[in-house]
């Protein structure tokens, strides 16, 4: 006796029709009939009889029905409870992510993580890069995505990505019409700039590049949200300095264009995954997540 036989018995009793029951169970009718016949042989009696009105239970079948229904019901309850139990056993990993990374990268990275680690669940929090190290030390997150490393014996850093910083603008922007290959940072400095705020690691890196070359902004618009920056650029207002990874969709659609900074390239924008070395129980899984992130970036 098996569950398929019992489910078939319940369906035939419910529909009072072998053909309809077979259709509902997506079975050929001979297969359904064989299941009923095998169940009758195991139970030692006939379960159904046919007459002019269709199929109906025999007295033997009526006696068997409540027991079969109880077994099927208990199996469904068991399956439901075990599924919930497995879900509750999933390890939850709390990941802190900067705003730009969350909106530009996570929609493509998250499905890959879910497929690769079905036994894990993920909780994501948007955090300023400058606060991520503190959140790791306070055990508020298990893994943080940051733009820089710090010297801390209790935190490990792994570089997962490195991107060239380019000048980004609308294709109809005047500077874009003046070149088809590259622009200098001096040319960019002469344009209205749309950049992240001063409290971001990304902005600190940009400012250092300007100071190193003794350049100053002519005009500056500060925005701490990547989608707003993209929207402003698409409207033809100003130029930004961004890794192409942040604007992959807009580059594909032609809504934005990017030009490398030449003749002296800017320092590449690096991305690190950081975690506490104190939480030893989660470290093997965290390293697996980091390896998958690194692989993702190397392929895209």
TrEMBL record:
<dbReference type="InterPro" id="IPR050950">
    <property type="entry name" value="HTH-type_LysR_regulators"/>
</dbReference>
<dbReference type="Pfam" id="PF00126">
    <property type="entry name" value="HTH_1"/>
</dbReference>
<dbReference type="InterPro" id="IPR036390">
    <property type="entry name" value="WH_DNA-bd_sf"/>
</dbReference>
<comment type="similarity">
    <text>Belongs to the LysR transcriptional regulatory family.</text>
</comment>
<dbReference type="GO" id="GO:0003677">
    <property type="term" value="F:DNA binding"/>
</dbReference>
<dbReference type="InterPro" id="IPR036388">
    <property type="entry name" value="WH-like_DNA-bd_sf"/>
</dbReference>
<protein>
    <submittedName>
        <fullName>Transcriptional regulator, LysR family</fullName>
    </submittedName>
</protein>
<feature type="domain" description="HTH lysR-type">
    <location>
        <begin position="1"/>
        <end position="58"/>
    </location>
</feature>
<dbReference type="InterPro" id="IPR000847">
    <property type="entry name" value="LysR_HTH_N"/>
</dbReference>
<dbReference type="InterPro" id="IPR005119">
    <property type="entry name" value="LysR_subst-bd"/>
</dbReference>
<keyword id="KW-0805">Transcription regulation</keyword>
<dbReference type="GO" id="GO:0005829">
    <property type="term" value="C:cytosol"/>
</dbReference>
<keyword id="KW-0238">DNA-binding</keyword>
<dbReference type="Pfam" id="PF03466">
    <property type="entry name" value="LysR_substrate"/>
</dbReference>
<dbReference type="GO" id="GO:0003700">
    <property type="term" value="F:DNA-binding transcription factor activity"/>
</dbReference>
<keyword id="KW-0804">Transcription</keyword>
């Amino acid at each position: 006796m098996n569950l398929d036989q019992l489910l078939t018995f319940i369906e035939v009793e419910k529909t009072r029709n072998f053909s309809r029951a077979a259709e509902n169970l997506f079975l050929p009718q001979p297969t359904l009939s064989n299941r009923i016949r095998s169940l009758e042989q195991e139970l030692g009696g006939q379960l159904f009889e046919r007459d002019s009105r269709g199929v109906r239970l025999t007295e033997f079948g009526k006696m068997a029905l409540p027991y079969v229904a109880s077994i099927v019901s208990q199996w469904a309850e068991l399956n439901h409870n075990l599924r919930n139990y497995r879900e509750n056993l999933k390890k939850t990993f709390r990941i802190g992510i900067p705003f730009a990374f969350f909106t530009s990268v996570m929609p493509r990275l998250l499905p890959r993580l879910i497929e690769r680690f079905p036994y894990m669940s993920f909780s994501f929090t948007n955090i300023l890069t400058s606060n991520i190290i503190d959140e790791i030390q306070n055990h508020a997150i298990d893994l943080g995505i940051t733009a820089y490393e710090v010297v801390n014996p209790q935190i490990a850093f792994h570089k997962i990505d490195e991107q060239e910083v380019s000048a980004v603008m609308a294709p109809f922007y005047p500077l874009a019409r003046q070149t088809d290959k590259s622009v200098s940072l001096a040319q960019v400095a002469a344009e209205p700039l749309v950049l992240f705020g001063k409290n971001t690691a990304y902005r600190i890196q940009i400012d250092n590049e300007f100071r190193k070359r003794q350049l100053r902004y002519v005009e500056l618009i500060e925005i701490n949200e990547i989608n707003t920056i993209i929207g402003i650029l698409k409207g033809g207002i100003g130029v930004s300095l961004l890794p192409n990874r942040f604007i992959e969709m807009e580059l594909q659609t032609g809504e934005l264009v990017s030009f490398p900074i030449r003749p002296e390239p800017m320092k590449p924008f690096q991305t690190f995954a950081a975690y506490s070395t104190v939480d030893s129980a989660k470290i093997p899984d965290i390293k697996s997540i980091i390896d998958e992130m690194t692989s993702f970036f190397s392929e895209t």
